[in-house]
Amino acid sequence: MKIKKLAVLLAAFSMAVSITACGPQKASEQVQTPADSGTAKTTETTAATTEVKPEDGAKLVIWESKDERSFTDEIAKQFTAKYNVPVKVEEVAPTDQVTKLTQDGPSGLAADVVIFPHDNLGRAASANLVLPNDLFAEETAKNNTESSIKGVTYNDVLYGYPRAAETYALYYNKSLVKDAPKTFDDVLAFGKTFTDKAKKKYGIMWETGNMYFNYPFIATTGGYIFGKDGTDKDDIGINSPGAIEGLKVYQSLKAILPVKSGDITPDIKRSLFNSGDVAMDINGPWELAGYKTALGDKLGVAPIPSIGGKPAVSFAGIKAWYVNAYTKYPNASKLFAEFASSKDAQLLLNEKVGSIPTNNEALESDQIKNDPFISAFAEQTKSSQPMPSIPEMGNIWSPVNAALPEIWDNGKDPKATLDKAAQQIKDLNNGAKK
């Protein structure tokens, strides 16, 4: 993938690094934007990173989720031991961080390093809230999966430091399903022997009204959200011929899951799967700990069954560190983001919370390959696609989440229903602020 390169001379770049390392800058001097702080050339980056040192007196604040706080506390201790930079961790939900950064960044109240889902990057980068990943661009791109790098890049500028991928896979109860189904034809065949609506027993269950979990039925056979790798808001592909082909498979599965989409909630599905009344569930790694406790050795995880003879394409979310554009300590912040997203850091994160690494070497490690659950999610990530990160992605959810129940619950024609949703999205896009 292409990363924007600035025509910056090595001497000038090295001088800027040296000046920055001498001490904290004033807020007016430290704020950078994509227009004046892109990624350096590959040869320059390698030279520059060897000279990066924390600013004198640097001290950092990091925003982290409550669920993954144990990892960040540990990695912060390691960073402080290596660089002698104190680190304070504050709990802020990743989905709230861009909004909070918008409010607190200019006033100097925000964290130096933040973490948020990559589909929020367009909003953050467009508002000049985060600095590009310039000093470590080459090694970040080299060390991590292509899809993760694509996810943390906006307008050809690399911003993020990927640390984990998140997608969904097929959970199954081994006492009910001997072997994980390879295709949705296999799922349909099994479901016809297992599903009993009167007894509330179902061969498979997933959130049929949520586009996030139903993206495989749109994308696997050729559909898409936005064209040009998710960057062209005017090219909407949810109603393309490929998408309609996959949605016919989706619609056929109502025969073995005769339940309205509104009646399938995470709590209901979890309870039925744990009790053995649902044999298979399409879900994410956040359910793994609970399912392991409930099913023990009976739990299996596998990639999502193929659709139309092709590996299922799931949505991927990339969790990554980003450096606040208003930080007083850009060098220290970039060093932390790099340090906390390394191979060793990603393996520590996996050990602490069961995350899926994006680092190529971590994915090939025995720790990941020998874990039957995480390795299945890692396998699914190979055919996953990062959610588009442009701001218009926010206009997709409501129209599609309204269209899917029409197709599932009421048997409406997928083409006509998605044509209507696509028009709604276009209208929203045309009214969106640039």
TrEMBL record:
Compositional bias segments (type: Low complexity): 39-51
Topology versus the membrane: Lipid-anchor
Keyword Oxidoreductase: no
Family, as annotated: Belongs to the bacterial solute-binding protein 1 family.
CC annotations in GO: ATP-binding cassette (ABC) transporter complex, substrate-binding subunit-containing
Region Disordered, residue ranges: 24-51
Gene Ontology molecular-function annotations: carbohydrate transmembrane transporter activity; maltose binding
Source organism of the structure: Paenibacillus zeisoli
GO biological process: maltodextrin transmembrane transport; maltose transport
Main location: membrane
Any Pfam family: SBP_bac_8
Annotated signal peptide: 1-21
Subcellular location: Cell membrane
Biased composition (Polar residues): 27-36
InterPro entries membership: Maltose/Cyclodextrin-bd, SBP
Keyword presence, Nucleotide-binding: no
UniProt keywords, alphabetically: Cell membrane, Lipoprotein, Membrane, Signal, Sugar transport, Transport
Protein name (Swiss-Prot/TrEMBL): Maltodextrin-binding protein
Protein origin, superkingdom: Bacteria
